[in-house]
Amino acid sequence: MPDILCMGEPMLELNQQPRAAEGRVLYLEGHGGDTSNAAIAAARSGASVGMITAIGCDWPGDSFMALWQREGVDTSCVVRNTEAPTGLYLVTHDEHGHHSSFWRAGSAASRYRWQDVPEGTIRAARVLHVSGISQAISESACDAVFHAIEVAKAAGLRVSYDTNLRQRLWPVRRAAAVMHAAIAEADIVFPSFEDAEALTGLHNSDAIVDFYLRLGCPVVALKLGPEGALVATPEQRERIAPHRVAAVDAIGAGDTFAGAFLARHVAGDDCFAAARYANAAAALTTTGYGAVAPIPRTAAVQALLRRAG
Predict the structure, then answer these.
(1) β-sheet bridge partners, residue 107
(2) What does CATH list as the number for 4-8+34-86+113-308?
(3) In degrees to the nearest 10, what's the CA dihedral of 41, 43, 47, 50?
(4) 89: which strand partners?
(5) Is 98 helix (H, G, I), strand (E, B) or coil?
(6) How far out from the chain centre does Cα 249 lie?
(7) Nearest to 103 by CA among 161, 37, 168
(8) Strand, helix or coil at 209?
(9) CB of 73 within 8 A of CB of 40?
């Protein structure tokens, strides 16, 4: 049975490429979805990982099954829906960064229900990882996440939560209410600074960390993008310095941070050591295009940490 279970929505990715003949735009087919990215990041860092999701009986779904098999991600809890498609998103790039457009209405993942939650597999795991997107895509998916959290907590698992706020999916006030109710049950939370500003109305990183600690979540790993991270428990906090790399595409970096952190967490690292590793893994992810291809393996992360001293 997997140690880490990642629950959420996978999506086929079409990512705009920087070089093409004049008048043409080329897109590279890839894979995305925040918790799937996190699962692969954890697997590439040596963890035993499984996915909880639903995908269509279509070629994007087949592509994900092949991807997870290659990456060593367990698929025994993946539902194949014959009546709903796998989601799709398009990534474009300009001087302001990357931009994503989504086609996910009625996707198989959005039709996931609390009755579909694999309770026995969750009870046998060590960590359940979910996200704001996991809850935002539909009411039934939101209910499924809360049910999975309930099962996990009753079984003594650690629950981790990545906010991944998508304001096109739901209003901020509703997102904040739902996310904060889930985070109050979580053991580790991975908000980005931008998400936390919108969700809490706070603009100071220490104040944001204090907010999530007061909710009752004992480990807060605030992702600060190119400025590194701030990690805190009720007793201690540490600023994790950034790694200066030749970044070209930041998509998936936060997901890699979460997955790499969880891999080191189940391997026995404390939250600060796990965050230092995760910060390096996330930096390396930005040096290539797409959500999955640039996710580093353990040797590359350790090499960057050694170079950084």
Answers:
(1) none
(2) 3.40.1190.20
(3) 110
(4) 13, 102
(5) strand
(6) 16
(7) 168
(8) helix
(9) yes
User: Mutual orientation of helices 205-215 and 172-183 as an angle, nearest 10°?
Assistant: 60
Q: Judge whether residue 195 has pLDDT over 90.
A: yes
Sheet containing strand 11-16, edge to edge, reads 27-32, 11-16, 87-94, 97-103
Spatial neighbors of 232 by CB under 8 A, at least 6 apart, are 209, 213, 219, 220, 222, 238
State the amino acid at position 243 in one-letter form.
Answer: H
- What's the CA gap between 270 and 289, in Å, rounded? 31
- The span from the CA of 34 to the CA of 24, in Å, is 29
CB 183 within 8 A of CB 153: no
Domain extent listing, the chain: 4-8+34-86+113-308
How far, CA to CA in Å, does 92 sit from each of 67, 89, 292?
23, 10, 16
DSSP 44-92: HTT--EEEEEEEESSHHHHHHHHHHHHHTEEEEEEEEESSSPPEEEEEE
pLDDT in tens, 111-162: 999 999 999 999 999 999 999 999 999 999 999 999 999 999 999 999 999 9
Report the distance separating Cα 29 and Cα 21, nearest Å: 18
Other beta carbons within 10 Å of 194: 13
